[in-house]
Amino acid sequence: MSSWEDDDSAAAAAAAAAASTDVELLKRAWRNEKASPEILRFDSPLVSRVREQIQLLEETLDDFGESGVDDLVVSLYQMDLDRTLFLLRSYLRLRLQKIEKYMMHISKSEDLLSRLSQQEQRFAKSCTEMMEKHLEQSVLSKLPYGYDSVTRQSLSSTEDDMVPEPQLDTFVFCKTKSDVGAFQLDDIGEEVVDLVADDLYVLRYKSIKGLVESGQIDLI
Amino acid sequence: MYGRRASQLLKEVDSCEAGQLVPFNSDVFDQVIRECNEHNTQFQSLIRKMVEQNLDIETTRNDDHYGAAVHHLSLLRNKRCLMAYMYKTEISQYNRAEVIQSFRWKIGPVLPHEIQEKLHFSEKEYFKNHSAAIKSYMSEMDIDLTVDMVPPKDPYIQVRVLEDIGEVSLGEHSISLTKNSLHFLRRTDTEQFISQGLMEEFLE
Predict the structure, then answer these.
(1) Does ipTM surpass 0.90 in this model?
(2) pLDDT the model gives residue A90
(3) A120 vs B: CB within 8 A
(4) Phi/psi of residue A108, each to 5°?
(5) B131-160 average pLDDT score
(6) Domain residues for A181?
(7) Does the beta carbon of A197 lie under 8 angstroms from any beta carbon of chain B?
(8) What is the pTM assigned to this prediction?
(9) Is B161 exposed, middle or buried (0-12, 13-18, 19+ CB in 10 A)?
(10) pLDDT digits (tens, 9 = 90+) for A94-103
(11) Cβ–Cβ of A123/B133 closer than 8 Å?
């Protein structure tokens, strides 16, 4: 039996799905991905739903071609299809480029890896291997013993100090979807903002990360 | 001065326009590698000297200790610069690997001769492997990500053919794309030709 909370969130998700189309949802995921410094969770069900719709639209267009529907109508459908396709491609591309940028950082964190789709995980893995091989043969193999690690500066480093990471404390523009209320921006509670529905803010990404993940706030 | 050559490499990358690539500077690169090994030799000999004098390397703070520290830190500095030149992003805003990755999206799987010349052999190999990884991702997902690089405005565009392409079949029609001819085509059909530099969008 599911708990009340599950019911609540399921109801909320159903309401959100009813309120906006999948393409709208994809647009939001795309916008968030574009503005966020780190990689966000991949929404597999959403992407497969959008792909189904794209296929349907393509079939409809083919039917139109055969039955001789007005060209204007056809080109409107075509435009809609083109836009959706662009959104999907751009979204996937954006994620690959982010993976390229932070591949080593992502590969060594289970949490980050779990945000990727299976195909993206494979991509990240092979990218990291290739990059390591490339750095190995161009630079590291020529350096003296003790200084030849990809992730550490030298043997005396106690942690990985040469892995580029995204800057999570960068500022982002964001828009609240609903009233969040008094929200604490730092750990000690000195900075508190009242987040009102449909308002614009410029905040540190790190402090609103949780709200982005739970979908209470959109990055723009 | 220690570390100056290495910073020269980074200045070269940084002074370059975004998205462009300077030829791989193997002269300076090799000099920095030599410098690194020289630092290591000096470092080792200073440490050996201290061991021979029966000093505790962990706690002794004499001239030799600071000499060794300077060599160690200079080596680290050089290493960081070399890595930043090739890949790491924390020091330099642009780095070679990122530019090379972006070529796959902007130009395609085959690089023109002018760019090939600028690459280190390992970079060429990396580009090839990286392209293959993108290709296998696209075939797993069954989607071509190399088209649709800019948001579509109109499903059709007017293009001018820059090089003789010959007979091409697009959908149900087959058309002959001769140099300097103008065509009104579906945008998705033209993208691959545009990215290869065989066509350009014709704007009146």
Answers:
(1) no
(2) 92
(3) yes
(4) -95, 5
(5) 85
(6) 167-220
(7) no
(8) 0.81
(9) buried
(10) 999 899 888 8
(11) yes
Kindly determine whether residue B148 and residue A90, on different chains, have CB atoms separated by under 8 Å.
Answer: yes
- Residues making up chain A, counted from first to last: 220
The distance of B163 to chain A (nearest Cα, Å) reads 27
Q: Where are the domains of chain B?
A: 1-94, 96-146, 156-201
Task: Please tell me the total count of domains within chain A.
Answer: 1
Amino acid letter, A90: S
Residues of B near A (CB-CB distance < 8 A)?
A: 33, 36-37, 40, 72, 75-76, 79-80, 82-83, 86-90, 97-98, 101, 105, 120, 122-123, 125-126, 129-130, 133-134, 136-137, 140-141, 143-145, 147-148, 151-152, 154-156, 187-188
Domain made up of B1-94: CATH architecture: Up-down Bundle (1.20)
For the residues B96-108, what does the mean pLDDT come to? 84
Q: For residue B80, which of B38, B36, B22, B34 has the smallest C-alpha distance?
A: B36
DSSP designation for B138: H
Instruction: Give per-residue pLDDT as tens, B164-194.
Output: 888 888 767 788 888 888 888 887 788 778 8
- Tens digit of each residue's pLDDT (9 = 90 or more) over A161-217: 778 888 888 899 988 888 888 888 877 777 788 888 888 889 888 888 888 888 888
